[in-house]
Amino acid sequence: MSDDARRLLPMPEDWRRALAVVAHPDDMEYGCAGAVAGWTAEGREVSYLLATRGEAGIDHMPPEEAEVVREREQIASARVVGVERVEFLDHPDGVIEYGLELRRDIAAAIRKHRPELVVIINHRDTWSGGGLNMADHRHVGQATLDAIRDAGNRWVFQDLLAGGLHPWQGVRWVAVAASPMATHAVDITSTFERAVESLLCHRAYLEGLGQTEEDARRFLREYAEACGRRFGGVLATDFELITL
């Protein structure tokens, strides 16, 4: 395939509210936070919804301790890129099940936040560079796609309507970060350092992985440069854009 055929397109800009739905603390920071920093700097409203508190993510730290640490790190990380609303659903880290409970919880958040853009992390079986994706990412991503439709139907999850969460049919796009089928991108040249700072807020998690600050910076730069090669040579982060 030629470089022109693989060229990434600019993301839509005619929206005001976005909701990012991911499985774990750190999911947004591995490549996507630079785009969020740019959006919030432009005055757009971005909220984060996490299915878990990442309690199973640090091998040497008991879950009851890790969930407190990782929640604190995620909130600090989000603030670096201008996100003040961070919510957690408390599904079990590592063993999230796709099903009605997860769909209902995400549909409730969509009705509450009323986004035009929904951001998820790659929900496909593999990553673009190879390697299997994990079940938590796949299940949360697929549940979010289904919950978008659920959120617009007043007769699905009728308890939400009874609780004052009215249907929302205003989601216009889903942006899938780190997708092997990327179509669009955002220039993060001016926000790259904030993206790095945001990832470095996950200090305990990075230490648990045995990664240094330089490792984290190198990962983000290499990823941004790779995306940018298909987007005019700038630092970029890519998305698979699904139009609804």
UniProtKB/TrEMBL annotation:
Source species, domain of life: Bacteria
GO MF annotation terms: hydrolase activity, acting on carbon-nitrogen (but not peptide) bonds, in linear amides
Record key words, sorted: Zinc
GO BP terms: glycoside metabolic process
Alphabetized InterPro entries for the sequence: GlcNAc_PI_deacetylase-related (IPR003737), LmbE-like_dom_sf (IPR024078)
Gene3D superfamilies, per the entry: LmbE-like (3.40.50.10320)
Cited SUPFAM superfamilies: LmbE-like
Protein name as catalogued: Putative LmbE-like protein
